[in-house]
Amino acid sequence: QQQLQESGPGLVKPSETLSLTCSVSGGSIKSTSYYWGWIRQPPGKGLEWIGSIHYRGSTHYNPSLKSRVAMSVDSSKNQFSLKLTSVTAADTAIYYCVRQYGDYWFDPWGRGTLVAVSS
Amino acid sequence: QSVLTQPPSVSAAPGQKVTISCSGTSSNIGNSYVSWYQQLPGTAPKLLVYDNNKRPSGIPDRFSGSKSGTSATLAITGLQTGDEAVYYCGTWDSNLNAYWVFGGGTKVTVL
């Protein structure tokens, strides 16, 4: 049973870059069947898909965030990462990393990490 | 404003049945599989139904999904207090810029 765990700063200043890493355990990130993604949830609100990456490097990003998002994979560490540039208060959210099966579903989810954008 | 439309809330007494609708368009629900997620208070969402009507291992058959045209439905029978949660539908949208979309979420309250 694979498990995912997010890590990174809980506070980021406006205009700076949010950086998070997801560590995958219980199986290799080098699976041809899966993408590895990020989903966020502003406090008290719904879910927003940020994007996903295959271990071979192909990516899909939410068009509304595409200009500010970059994802990468470190297969040697069984990790993948998210960078979101030029953050504002609207980027304050719980960020979840997920395993994404094709275009079809997300499972499992990490426990989530709250990132606040504030000076 | 979510791409997929869900009712904000539904409620029923223990043992009863609730249904949650998820309405979309031909570029999303009408053209792809739907999955459903359960988010219990203070926890991460969990996959409940995938490929419109399949349940992952460990999900009781009280939860069932269906899809017709551009709408999907999640049904919960034999409602239990532990089912109080927010439920989200989601699917892939292939309109111009392909990306994943979610409904706004439905809060299920057990009376």
Provide a short characterization of the protein structure:
With 119 residues, chain A is mainly beta.
Which tags fit this structure?
heterodimer, A: 119 residues, mainly beta, seven-stranded mixed sheet, four-stranded antiparallel sheet, 11 strands, 0% helix, globular, B: 111 residues, six-stranded mixed sheet, three-stranded antiparallel sheet
Helical/strand content category of chain A: mainly beta
> How much β-strand is present in the residues of chain A?
over 45%
CA(first)-CA(last) distance of chain A: 39 Å
* Individual helix count of chain B: 0
Q: Give the radius of gyration of chain A.
A: 13 Å
Which structural category fits the helices and strands of chain B? mainly beta
Mean pLDDT of chain A: 96
Gross geometry of chain A = globular
Average pLDDT, all residues of chain B:
96
Oligomer: heterodimer
Characterization of this structure:
The complex is a heterodimer of chains A (119) and B (111). Chain A is mainly β and 119 residues long. In chain A, 0% of the residues lie in helices and 53% in strands. Chain A contains no helices and eleven strands. Chain A is globular. Chain A starts with a strand and ends with a strand. The relative contact order of chain A is 0.32. Chain B has 111 residues and is mainly β. Chain B has no helices and nine strands. The chains are: A mainly beta (119), B mainly beta (111).
